[in-house]
User: Which sequence fits this backbone?
């Protein structure tokens, strides 16, 4: 085995194409891409995650809708977007999710912002918060104790996605504003662990 | 507690509506955002037109889970509907081909235990993967790729998806054997993620302990 100078470099790899179904211009990334246009891609329309977990964004600079991406093939936009109402057929920036530990993830969720109100604890996936006893279809704040999680507007992981990471602002997501630039309401009906 | 005597002619005649101690209740609305004509259901409905609804625009599942279908008589693309609010068609369907949901039925929950065997080839051959009491957003991370061609659902109720992270066409696996992908109505053996269907009205395991 060749000793790599950057030990982490083998952990994340994404191959992107500028046309759907793995056609057109191709490029491999092993670290953050702040702006695909700056790397010669006006947009990314299909990709394959070869290792690690990633998060893709609608806009450059890690802004707009978020798409959690795990190992596998994504030939077209419907493979990564959970929302057809707000149709996003492109991805303009992406980065690795470095804190995903599928088997040892823990999350606290709170009814109100700033960790107030009723509290719930999760260490397993939850495809429907109402079905597993969370009263209501909204969450006010999250505290990520370990791992990376993704929550979604609708049951079954559909609609807008919000990534929650234990290594981003100490895992504290006190207010809807901190969930992402696309977050408008606290509507959350499903939550799951991100798999590395 | 006195048990009510129920006359035999009123007993449920095994149409599989899951009468094992849980309730099924769903409200379908003709328009988006829970507007327009509405209809409350507690058992299967082979054609929404029978309830004088032209189409289904939004859905509220009060107790479930339910399974929706693109076409009448439980045919076409499947949509798992767990407890919660679905204000528009794209909140239950990932397919841009169809915004139609024309029939629906209660989805059986088998047991608190979940075990499924996935096979790379039809007839339960080729590489095999066993999943026990877990959800798998990427089969690739477990040594599989994108091909699943036969399935044995040994315990529990499962749903498989074309793409990683529970995206794309959905296929439900109720307890049973699926020798070939055409038995789950797929036109190709493409599956990259699979998860359990769970609900606390059937089994408390995994429920919130609110504080």
Assistant:
């Amino acid at each position: 085995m060749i000793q790599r100078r950057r030990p982490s470099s083998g952990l994340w790899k994404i191959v992107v194409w500028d046309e759907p179904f793995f056609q057109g211009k191709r490029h491999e990334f092993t670290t953050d891409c702040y702006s695909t246009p700056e790397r010669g891609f006006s947009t990314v329309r299909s990709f394959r995650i070869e290792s690690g977990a990633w998060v893709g964004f609608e806009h450059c600079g890690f802004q707009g809708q978020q798409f959690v991406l795990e190992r596998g093939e994504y030939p077209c936009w419907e493979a990564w977007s959970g929302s057809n109402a707000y149709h996003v057929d492109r991805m303009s920036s992406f980065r690795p999710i470095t804190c995903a530990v599928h088997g040892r993830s823990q999350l606290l969720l709170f009814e109100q912002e700033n960790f107030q109100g009723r509290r719930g604890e999760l260490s397993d996936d939850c495809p429907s918060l109402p079905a597993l006893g969370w009263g209501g279809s909204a969450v006010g704040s999250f505290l990520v104790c370990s791992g990376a999680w993704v929550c979604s507007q609708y049951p079954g992981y559909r609609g807008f996605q919000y990534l929650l990471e234990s290594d981003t602002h100490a895992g504290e997501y006190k207010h809807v504003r901190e969930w992402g630039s696309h977050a408008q309401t606290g509507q959350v009906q499903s939550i799951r662990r991100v798999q590395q | 507690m006195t048990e009510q005597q129920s006359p035999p002619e009123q007993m449920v005649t095994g149409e599989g509506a899951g009468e094992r101690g849980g309730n099924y209740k769903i409200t379908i609305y003709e328009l988006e955002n829970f507007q327009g004509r509405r209809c409350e259901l507690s058992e299967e409905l082979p054609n929404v037109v029978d309830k004088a609804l032209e189409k289904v625009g939004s859905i509220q599942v009060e107790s479930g889970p339910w399974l929706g279908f693109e076409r009448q008589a439980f045919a076409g693309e499947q949509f798992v509907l767990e407890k919660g609010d679905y204000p528009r068609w794209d909140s239950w369907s990932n397919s841009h081909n169809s915004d139609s949901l024309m029939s629906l039925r209660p989805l059986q929950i088998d047991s608190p235990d979940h075990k499924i065997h996935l096979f790379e080839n039809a007839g339960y051959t080729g590489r095999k993967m066993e999943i026990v009491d877990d959800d798998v957003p990427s089969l690739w991370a477990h040594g599989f790729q994108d091909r699943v061609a036969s399935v044995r659902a040994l315990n529990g109720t499962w749903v498989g998806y074309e793409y990683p992270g529970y995206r794309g066409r959905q296929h439900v696996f109720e307890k049973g054997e699926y020798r070939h992908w055409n038995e789950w109505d797929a036109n190709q053996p493409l599956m990259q993620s699979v998860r359990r269907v769970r609900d606390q009205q059937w089994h408390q395991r995994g429920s919130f302990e609110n504080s």
Summary: Chain A has two domains: 13-96, 102-193.
